[in-house]
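Deliverable D4.2, example record:
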Amino acid sequence: MSVGFIGLGNLGTAIAKRLTDMGEELTVYNRTKSKVEHLGYPIVDSPKELIEKCDIVFMCLFESSAVENIFKMENGLLSADLTGKTIIDLTTNHYEKVLEFHKLVDEKEGEYLESPIFGSVAPALQGLVTIVTAGKKETFDACKPLLEKIGKEIFYLKDEGKASKMKLINNLCLGSFMATIAECTALGEACDIEKSSLLEILGVGGGQSLVLKAKTQKLLEEDFSAHFSNNAIYKDLHTLQDLAYSLNQPLFTASVPKELFGKMKKDGKGEEDFCSIYQLFKD
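Output generated by the structure prediction step:
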C-alpha cells in the first residue's frame, strides 16, 4: 500500500513524521515545493500525479476552500481516475462543504473518509491525537489500521458531515478553555502569584484539562510559536456559529471566545499559537 500526503503545515508535518516513524513511506505534494524539500520526502508536481502513484492520500489543509482547490485545480485529484483510491481528509472542514466532497469522490468511484484531527503538533508526533471519522463503514474498516498509527482514540460516526460537526463542537470546548486559562493566568499574576505555582495549582484544581497540560510550558516561557493558531480557532468558532444558526440553536458561550481570537487576528497575531490570547488579558 502506497501512501501520499497533501498539506505539510505544522500539523500535517507532524502527522507525516508520525506515519514515517511507524514505517510508512510517503510521497507528498505541496503547492510550494521549496517549503517541504527539507523534509526529505519524494515530491510530485500535482495532486493528480500523487493519487495516481498512491493507493491512499491524506489531506491536512487549513480549510474547505483549500480542499476544494486540491480537488478541482488543474491536475487536481478529480482529474485522475479515482477507482480503487481512498482520500482521508484530516482537515477541519465546513459541515456543508464536506458533504460536497463525499459526493465528488463518490461520483469518481473513489472512497472518501472525513476524518478531522483532535489535537495539535505535540500529540500528533506521538500518535496521541483523536480522530473522528465519517464515511462508508467498509472504507473505515480498511483504513482503521493506518489511522491507528497516528491516533490513540478513533471514533466512527458513519453519517456524512457528523465528524466535521463533532470537531467544531469539540473546538468550542478548546477555545473556551484556553480563553479561561489565559485569563486566570493573567489574573493570578496581577495578584502577585508566581506563574509557575499558579499553573501547577490550576493543573490539579479547576483548570485541570488537556488544554492546560498542553499549554503550561508555552505559557511559562511565553512561547507563542504555533501548534494550533489563532487563525485556525477563530475560523472554527465562526463555522460553529454558522452551524448553530442553521439549527436555530443559540450559542451562549461561543461568542466571547470567538471575538477574543478575532481580536488576536486583527492585531496581527493570527499566526501565533492560540495560547497567545494570554497577552490580551496580561496587557
